Amino acid sequence: MPVKVSVVIPVYNPGNYIEDCVASLRRQSLPPDEFEAIFVDDGSTDDTPARLDALAAEVENITVIHQEASGWSGKPRNVGIETSQGEFVMFVDNDDYLGDEALERMYDYAVANGADVVVGKMAGKGRGVPVELFRRNHPRATVDNAPLIDSLTPHKMFRRAFLDRIGLRFPEGRRRLEDHVFVTEAYLRADNVSVLSDYVCYYHLKRDDASNAGFQRFDPVGYFANLREALDVVEKYTEPGPTRDR
């Protein structure tokens, strides 16, 4: 059976927070032979590598890749893309988890609408998530007719052939907003973006120790340099006017 979806999970010292992520993958309504989960361990120093290896030995559709610590999520996600065999790639953080029908619903929605990107409804567990974007389904969403700009995290489903065709990968290295650069370009260059709002696909969790990447110490120099890069993407792929001004 061809692999429909590859789920890529960058991993670094998640401790027990990874358990909900793993459990949600094993509960998916999409049959196990139609998706794969690729855990890319970015040099974890806890017991995660051994736990993941044991999991991969037990579960056929789970793969584990170990690499030296890169310090951020961009490189592990890129390694996952290159390893993936699925028609679509879905990015999940190691301390978040999926709704039980997320992969099946998002894949079917992508196929039905010819989407290069599918944005599934999110729910926050101690973290803010977009609200206005998910008030209704948007089979053909653009930055003009839907508030896509409210959701620039990478926790979405992307057509692998689309990523390859435009050569889109995450900026690597310790860089804030690297996901914003990636997602902004995907939105602006996709033939179609679909927003699925009638089912919670993704649960975005704030850890008790607040050690998610988004809660790390603020570096203004790096932040604004990367924000400038995201704005450069907008300028490159839009014409002057209301769309660019958003």
UniProtKB/TrEMBL annotation:
SUPFAM superfamilies in alphabetical order: Nucleotide-diphospho-sugar transferases
InterPro entries xrefs: Glyco_trans_2-like, Nucleotide-diphossugar_trans, TarS/TarP_linker
Highest taxon, organism lineage: Bacteria
Domain Glycosyltransferase 2-like: 6-136
Coiled coil regions in record: none
Stretches assigned to the TarS/TarP linker domain: 220-246
GO molecular function: hexosyltransferase activity
PANTHER family: GLYCOSYLTRANSFERASE, UDP-GLCNAC:BETAGAL BETA-1,3-N-ACETYLGLUCOSAMINYLTRANSFERASE-LIKE PROTEIN 1
Annotated protein name in UniProt: Glycosyl transferase
Species for this entry: Streptomyces sviceus (strain ATCC 29083 / DSM 924 / JCM 4929 / NBRC 13980 / NCIMB 11184 / NRRL 5439 / UC 5370)
